């Protein structure tokens, strides 16, 4: 064809299921020398399932009531964990709306008023200890014991608080994407560096998943701004970072990166707006494919 090489690269990217927002993006993709990958919804399928429902003694709640309470607070959230909670509750009972004062705290969880009581659902370290992270972790108490047991089993543990006091813990599990391992290997080869995992989830679950993927550099318990700070630190060292993410919590990192790619199918609007390119077909392997394409196109231009 007579198309200029970069335009033809964009068109080829489209054939791989990636929408590049500009020709500059096609150049930048191939320049990446480090890939930083989000966990939930990016390396995992992003359709997690609730596997455990554990009301705490003294809460006066049974499993169905706990799940319903969490689902009513999570209802307005677009987070994959919120969708899992609502779907699990709906399998058992109708989930009425009527929650008010909804607030989403990216990287931490949600809060809303349900039947006059303040309900919070989210990360144990953020909601119980004020800050997400891999620190000493919860210790002591029925709630902490449930959280530790679930995380030890590789689950994401989510706590439910009512008027500030924990009333239950939910265990949530997500599957790795079938092409996650091959994608990590391909990006390592293309960039010359082993990709890094960036996640707001707990360190135990993150390390378990990273080990399956051959990733050794794991940054867990990160808030959205922490992800961006990590990217900026690498960029300050002279690395050109390719960030792949899907969530509202990934938007600052996508913006800070040399090049940001969002997973389109389940991606949040903010991630899709902020990213330089979007994976429109739900295949992670499209990411290394377009990086390779970009390199070929650059060789033709130079
Ligand atoms: P990741 O970086 O892996 O995509 P997030 O930053 O979106 O994960 O979330 C980090 C953690 O914050 C989750 O593991 C969970 O504990 C908590 N969290 C965030 N949003 C929600 C929500 N809507 N419901 C429950 N927990 C949430
Ligand atoms: Mg995510």
TrEMBL record:
Subcellular locations according to the entry: Cell membrane
Domain of life: Bacteria
Family: Belongs to the cation transport ATPase (P-type) (TC 3.A.3) family. Type IB subfamily.
Name of this protein: Heavy metal translocating P-type ATPase
